[in-house]
Design brief:
Elements: E1 2-4, E2 8-10, H1 40-54, E3 55-56, E4 64-68, H2 72-82, E5 87-91, H3 94-101, E6 108-112, E7 114-115, E8 118-119, H4 120-129, E9 138-142, H5 147-155, E10 160-163, H6 168-189, H7 206-221, H8 230-236, H9 241-252, H10 256-273, H11 278-284, H12 290-301, H13 305-314
Parallel strand pairs: 4-5, 4-6, 6-9, 9-10
Antiparallel strand pairs: 1-2, 3-5, 7-8
Helix pairs in contact: 8-9
């Protein structure tokens, strides 16, 4: 261990490799005629197969979709249809889907209505009932094309209803449109708070709209405060830090800190239009220094604040 006052401490742990440091009695082995029940590679292969049945990972940047379908052929077809574009969580019944939802928060859920241990409508109802998951869009798949079932799905705030057999390209387009609407939400809720009520809402339910308006109002009111933090915002919204992050990520496709910076930069552009100087602006929108402000501004808009202001003043 080494330690320096005011700087910290370094702990170094060294562990010998091999088995030369053990006594013979401490070593366990197998008789020549005896084989271990599992080889290490067997365990790895088995684990990989289990994971492969329920998950399909494309990349960290890809959106994630949960598919709940009891029919193996249809579930495999949906997987082959979507795995090139999305990360997938696959469940064969309501119980498995509920268990997955405790650890995975998908960007979208596709569920069959008729399941062996319940109904896709129950899954939909549960998702929309909880504040932490109400923002997740749900597409219902069903062989039932009657108006009564479709009406019930609409009442429970299903984002779409597609009957089987379905057109593959239509399903892809519906998924893409729903996820694209989340990106549009980011653009809307990164502008000034006064604009929100005047703009027609995109595909977002009342609970999510309240959340976004509350988030926006809190950030707007504290935009000039350099101490504005994720923990502070979470506390004001009565959410945990993790819940806030997931909610913002799902709805706006960005982190909370990215959202704050974007709000500050858009506010800065607004203040430039009012004639304020760069030195007056950076502290007014919560940046700790002019250099940090200039760096963030250029990264976002491709030019320095001064160059942008000169162009604006010429107009």
């Amino acid at each position: 261990m080494s330690s320096k006052p005011g700087h910290g401490s370094i702990f170094t742990l060294r562990m010998p490799i091999g088995n030369g440091h053990y006594e013979p009695a401490e070593l366990a082995g197998f008789d020549s005629g005896e084989k271990p029940l599992f080889q290490q590679q067997d365990l790895l292969d088995t684990t990989a197969k289990v994971v492969d049945n329920n998950l399909s990972f494309r990349s960290n940047k890809s959106k994630s979709i949960m598919i709940v379908e009891d029919n193996d052929e249809i579930r495999d077809y949906l997987r082959s249809l979507l795995e090139q574009d999305y990360n997938l969580f696959l469940a064969k019944d309501a119980q498995q889907a509920t268990s997955m939802m405790k650890t995975h928060f998908p960007d979208l859920v596709i569920t069959d209505i008729m399941l062996p241990d319940g109904s896709g409508l129950d899954i939909l109802k549960d998702i929309k009932a909880f504040y932490q998951t109400a923002h997740i869009p749900v597409i219902l798949l069903s062989a039932l094309a009657n108006e009564e079932t479709m009406l019930e799905g609409s009442k429970l705030m299903a984002d779409d209803y597609i009957t089987k057999p379905f057109n593959a390209e239509l399903l892809r387009i519906r998924i893409s449109n729903i996820l694209q609407s989340r990106h549009q939400l980011k653009e809307k809720y990164s502008s000034n708070v006064e604009q929100f009520e005047r703009t027609q809402a995109e595909q977002v339910n009342d609970s999510d709209r309240r959340f976004l308006n509350n988030l926006s109002a809190i950030v707007e009111s504290k935009l000039s405060d350099q101490r504005l933090s994720v923990d502070g915002i979470a506390n004001d919204l009565h959410l945990s830090r993790v819940q806030l992050y997931r909610k913002v990520k799902q709805l706006l496709d960005c982190s909370v800190n990215e959202y704050i910076v974007e709000r500050r930069l858009k506010k800065a552009k607004s203040l430039m239009a009012e004639g304020l100087t760069i030195n007056e602006i950076f502290s007014s929108v919560g940046f700790s220094s002019a250099s940090y402000f200039a760096s963030a501004f250029k990264r976002k808009y491709g030019q320095s604040p001064s160059a942008y202001k000169k162009e604006f003043d010429k107009k």
